Amino acid sequence: MNYNHDVASELIKQNIAKLLAALPDGVEVVAAAKTRTPEEVLEAVQAGIKIIGENYVKEAKEAHELVGRRAKWHFIGTLRKHNVRKTVLEIFDMIESVDSLEIAREIDRRCAQIGKIMPILIEVNSGREPQKSGTLPEDVERLVREISSLGNIQVMGLMTMGPRFGNPEDFRPYFTETRRIFEKIKGLKLPNVEMRYLSMGMTNSYKVALEEGANIIRIGTRIFGERD
Ligand SMILES: *Cc1c(COP(=O)(O)O)cnc(C)c1O
Hints:
Helix 1 packs across helix 2 and helix 2 (about 40-45) crosses helix 3 (about 55-65). By secondary structure, the protein is of the alpha/beta class. It is about 40% helix and about 20% strand. The protein has helices at about 5-20, 40-45, 55-65, 85-90, 100-115, 140-145, 170-190, 205-210, 220-225, and strands spanning about 30, 50-55, 70-75, 95-100, 120-125, 155-160, 195-200, 215-220.
């Protein structure tokens, strides 16, 4: 143990304690772990984090090797077809970023091979940004209906990022819109669809997201510090 390591570890602990103490009941925190070392991820778990969010398969595998089942694992990055492998599906407890029928079919096919039913969220491109991943708001219901017929996937809600802003208040309309779609689909009571989770809000926007109904928030910087 060296001095810098202890200081970093103490900071992660304090950040998590402060964050968790101020959250309402029923809200789950996903620690967004991109660029962090497996040791940092383990420290977050030891400090009370129950869910790790991974953007990259390689980082997920490395962190999972150290942390294992001491946490749950959510995939929150851009999923490509060639990444939907057995070893990947075995790690993850939820995939938050499904945005096409094609990728859903691939997850379904591979999960059938390993006898798993994968909980997923549909990622909504609430900012309608052309280069961003996610399904356009008007296409979400159709995609949910299509995916609901797949036997090895269970739709459990929606996720959104929203455009990047400096001012947290600027996120609000995108969160409101995603919440509206969430409630609408929930009201349809589609078979094999259980609209339970609304994953919205990051370090600079999670307070607004909570006001707009999020029950999963994805936090990186406020837990681990600034990324390099
Ligand atoms: C990085 C990331 C986050 C967390 O971002 P911070 O601003 O560091 O809290 C949340 N969600 C996704 C999908 C991310 O890639």
